[in-house]
Amino acid sequence: MNGHDRLGYEQRLALELAAIGQRLVTISSEMRSASVASAATAVAEVVAPPPTPQAPVSVPLPPDPWSQQGAMPVPPPVPQQQWPQPPQQWPAPQPRESLFEKLGKDGAGSKLLAWVGGAITVLGFVLLLVLAIQRGWLGPMPRVIGGAVFSGALVGIGIWLHRNPTGRTGAFALAATGFAGLYLDVIAATSLYEYLPPPVGLVVGLGVAATGVVLALRWDSQTLAVGVVAACAICSPVLTEGFTVLLVGFLLVLKMASTPVQIQRNWPGLAIAGGFPPIIASLLTTANAIPRDYEWTVVGVAAATTVVGIVVALLTTRKRPDDIVAVALVAGSALPAMFATTLLSDPANSVLAGAGAAVLLAIWMVPDLPRSFTTAAGATGMLALFQTTVIALDGNVRTAIVLAEAVLLAFLAARLNKKSALVGSIVFGAVGFLMTVSQAVPITWLLEEPRYVIAGSGDYAAGLVTAVVLGVFAATAPWAALKMQVLREPAKHPFPWIIAGLVLLYGAAGAVLCAALLVSPDESGFLFGHSVVTVSWTVAALFLLVRGINNKALRISGLILVGAAVVKLVTFDLAALDGVARVLAFLGAGLVLLTAGTRYAKLVASAKNPDSYESKPAAPPSY
Q1: Collapsing DSSP states into helix, strand and coil, what is residue 54?
Q2: Spatial contact of 418 and 378, defined as CB atoms under 8 Å apart
Q3: Residue-by-residue DSSP string for 449-511
Q4: Is the peptide bond before 347 cis (omega within 30 degrees of 0)?
Q5: Measured between alpha carbons, how far is residue 527 from residues 110, 172, 195, 562, 602 in Å?
Q6: Which of 43, 138, 214, 314 sits 20 to 30 Å CA-CA off 125?
């Protein structure tokens, strides 16, 4: 074999080896595809009906290396087939268990019996203490010691049972019953027998409640924690003989004991059981308190309840921004301090209400807090602000300040884009308008002559200020709503704008009449004021018509105001005014309307025909 034949042989051998390798790769791919397809078919038969058969997809392979001349013939490779994957099947959602299904489970009866037995045991312990006092059984000290020993034994048995997983249901119930008994025993030793001074009793109670809640945290049982706190809160009023300051103190102790665990764990039941009983007890204690008796003690406890509640709500919402209990807690915690103002006299009551309003409104302005939390704080703060205004001020000044607060809230709403501020502004404005119509600038001032109205110069001055502020509010509130895109343009949503326009007209008319009566508090001032009101309405209508050439809303408003001025002329001015006042009203309004009609017609014609002579600019002079 010469060199040339040897080289050709080596080339053919290399090509044959390459073809063999290609065949092995093809066979391996076919075997993997077959195994995957069989497994997928088996799964599809179990979880779903078989998928619709589809034709296999042929995948082209690289060109055959034996296409060269002189190579050994090799059969073409079988095209690789890809089978479609079965659709993924999600497990169907499990239906929620009904109450009967839960009670029918194994062990459900034991849990129910254990907790019902614990609740009855706690109630029996309280009744035993009350009966022992009424019948004189044993002495106070044996009662306290016996109750402590009995409750401690229940806690010990519960801890011993918790070591066995099968006995943990009874362990939870026994431990909750024992801690509740110990806490009630401390209350009895402090309130009924006076063995412990109130500060010492509160500290001991804090230790007992904290121990029970910490044990619940260690056992990871919200049920145990809620059982301890709820049992103590429900049974405490029996031993304190009603809603007293000491009861509120013990309930605040429960709240402070449960707060660290509530912040660490998301246990809404514990938050409710520990957060709201002090608020309710403080409100009832204030309602039962006798003024001038011990009001400062009641007010101090109410203020402490408010402070503790707001602090706990802030700490909770910092830890969990979506906690709905914190939202309810920040709104409800301000109620005790607000209600406690009924026991105080001026200016202490307004200072207390103002302090609560300042704190809540400051929370409302914090941008990092959740919107729901700040909205609740802002709503309660605005209520406290209104209470402060009503307490601190009286008469027409109160009305003017309420309307000024409405204007301020409208500006804050437009500036900070807070819808809650806009709602508060509308509420304040509505209340201020009712106060204006009924007291500050009554309708009788606009309809009756001064000889029928008993008012002084001071009332007219306050009415002037109130009417001006009312007009400013009527213009500010819809502007803020339009800027916040809450209210659409007048042409698209006319009703709110019509209401605002009527309020603005009332404020403007009241301001003009109060100014005229302030200058001349007699019939001449009344008549001159109404003349100015009629003429001013027509002037305002002319202004709206001129500005509304290309604005349908302003144009409609101007025409409505023209109609109102004409109606006032015919129905009121013609009958109420006489002499010079009637002549001035009719001449002034008529001349203004005549001028308005002539000028408005020219402007409309110019707007419709831009190429008219009046609309063309003057030609430059030619030289």
Answers
A1: coil
A2: yes
A3: -GGGS---HHHHHHHHHHHHHHHHHHHHHHHHHHHTTSS--TTTSHHHHHHHHHHHHHHHHHH
A4: yes
A5: 87, 83, 80, 21, 34
A6: 214
> What pLDDT does residue 615 have?
42
Closest of 59, 97, 92 to residue 78, by C-alpha: 59
Give the closest residue to 343 by CA, choosing from 279, 282, 253.
282
Q: What is the rounded distance in angstroms from the CA atom of residue 518 to the CA atom of residue 529?
A: 10
Q: What percent of the chain has pLDDT over 70?
A: 63
Give the Cα separation of 251 and 256 in Å (integer): 9
DSSP 536-568: HHHHHHHHHHHHTSS-HHHHHHHHHHHHHHHHH
Distance CA 530, CA 533 (A): 5
Rounded CA separation 105/102 (Å): 6
Q: Indicate the residue type of 86.
A: P
pLDDT tens for residues 70-104?
A: 444 444 554 444 454 545 554 555 555 554 455 45
> How far, in whole angstroms, is CA 217 from its chain's centroid?
30
DSSP character string of 79-146: PEEEPPPPPP-PPPPPPPPPHHHHHHSTTHHHHHHHHHHHHHHHHHHHHHHHHHHHHT-S-HHHHHHH
Tokens of 279: 């608020």
Q: Contact at 8 Å (CB) between 333 and 313?
A: yes
Contact 217, 265 (CB under 8 A): yes
Structure tokens at 274: 């520990």
DSSP annotation of 57? E
Burial 124-135 (b: 16+ CB within 10 A, else e): ebbeebeebeee
Question: What's the half-sphere exposure (Cβ side, CA atoms, 13 Å) at 437?
Answer: 10
- On whether the CB atoms of residues 215 and 260 are closer than 8 A, the answer is no
Residue of 213 and 110 predicted with greater confidence: 213
Q: In whole angstroms, how large is the CA radius of gyration of the chain? A: 43
CA distances from 29 to 20, 24, 57, 78, 415 (A): 14, 9, 14, 11, 69
Contacts of 494 (CB under 8 A, 6+ apart): 553, 556
This prediction has a pTM of: 0.68
The answer to whether the CB of 152 falls within 8 A of the CB of 125 is: no
